[in-house]
Amino acid sequence: MTNNQSHTAVIALGGNALSPAGEHSTIADQFAHTRASLGAIVDLALDGWDICLVHGNGPQVGDELVRNELARAEVAPLPLGVLVAATAGWIGYMIQQSLENALRRAGSDREVATVITQIRVAPDDPALTAPTKFIGHAIPDERVPDLRERTVAVERDARGRWRRVVGSPTPLAVHEISVIQRLVQSGIIVVACGGGGAPIYHDGARGWEGLDAVVDKDLAAAVLARDLGASLLMILTDVEGVFLDYGTPRQRLLDTLTLAEAQRLDAAGAFGAGSMAPKVRAAANFVRHTGGRAIITELARGREAVRGAAGTTIIAENA
User: Fold this and answer.
1) Nearest to 265, CA basis, from 242, 287, 249
2) Catalytic one among 39, 68, 133, 210?
3) Please, are residues 136 and 80 in contact by the beta-carbon 8 Å criterion?
4) If you write DSSP's letter for every residue of 70-139 in order, what string do you get?
5) Does 99 have pLDDT greater than 60?
6) Which residue segment(s) compose the domain that 308 sits in?
7) Phi-psi region of 59 (alpha: psi -120 to 50; beta: other; left: phi over 0)
8) Known catalytic residue: 68?
9) In this structure, what DSSP letter does residue 308 have?
């Protein structure tokens, strides 16, 4: 393997890979999904890549909010920033254990470590006072007045269901970047920025303080990849890649996009605001700042995508 930063990959794994949409997964289910999701990461490790793995936590933090609500008469609820850190810890545990087992079966002695990560954001980010990001499960109509009385922001989503909405500020920097960098350069596979990382800001009197918000994990992965000096950002999802006219008879896979093409199509609304667009923007941000390569592809095809045989690759410009 190599300790050269130019051979470093940041891989973003969606929370739904561990807890598929529509499934109320037990921990045993989530361990099974975790084990099934790591094949491409093992392949890249065996190919000699230095790796930092980022994961989502949407379904898991939603479950924690339900536990908060059900137990609020018995124990004090935990704030959202703490729940992000908590889910990053136990999802990291699942990934660490599952990935190490898979590496050993493949004959590799690579080590795996999880870093609970804080993400620096601006305390005056407009997203903090205009919450729009839906989290958690649907809320019954009869509970909405009680939540609003307690100043919990709830709105109807695109399916007409009441759900919590929270702020999602832009990630500026990874607070633990130097620790993560030393681990990655030593050959350890690092799980970092879990759930996008817990957002923090600097208070002049108290130092670093947390916020009740969530950070988009793909945007956080792009910032992490930028600051690590990675040459590759790979976003693993549940579709083959980026399509035009997705879901219609005219859909077609875009195997390569230049940065300019990605920005033009995104500005035209070609990718869908709530689905592929955030992933394309994260990938484009990484390419813009580094000149590196970003790939969006489905979970099972990561190794093929790195070799140019699958998914959508975003590059700075055509050769």
Assistant:
1) 242
2) 133
3) no
4) HHTTTSPPPPHHHHHHHHHHHHHHHHHHHHHHHHHHTT----EEE---EEE--TT-GGGTS--EEEEEEE
5) yes
6) 5-121+172-201+210-315
7) alpha
8) no
9) T
CATH number of the domain encompassing residue 70: 3.40.1160.10
Encode pLDDT of 21-52 as tens digits. Answer: 666 678 888 888 888 778 888 988 998 999 99
Query: What pLDDT sits at residue 78?
Result: 92
Q: Catalytic annotation on 194?
A: no
Q: Let me know if residue 158 belongs to a domain.
A: no
pLDDT digits (tens, 9 = 90+) for 114-128: 999 999 999 999 999
pTM of the prediction?
0.88
Question: Can 56 be counted among the known catalytic residues?
Answer: no
Query: Is-catalytic flag, 16?
Result: yes
Of 14, 15, 81, 136, which one is the catalytic site residue?
A: 15
**Does some domain include residue 242?**
yes
DSSP symbols for 211-248: -S----HHHHHHHHHHHHT-SEEEEEESSSS-EESTTS
Q: For the chain, what percent of residues have pLDDT higher than 70?
A: 93
Q: How many domains does the chain have?
A: 1
Residue 91: inside a domain, yes or no? Answer: yes
Mean pLDDT of the region 121-137: 88
- Cα 92 from Cα 271, distance rounded (Å): 30
> Bigger pLDDT: 205 or 38?
205
- The string of DSSP letters for 21-43 reads TT----HHHHHHHHHHH-HHHHH
For 297, half-sphere exposure in the C-beta direction (CA atoms, 13 angstrom radius) is 24
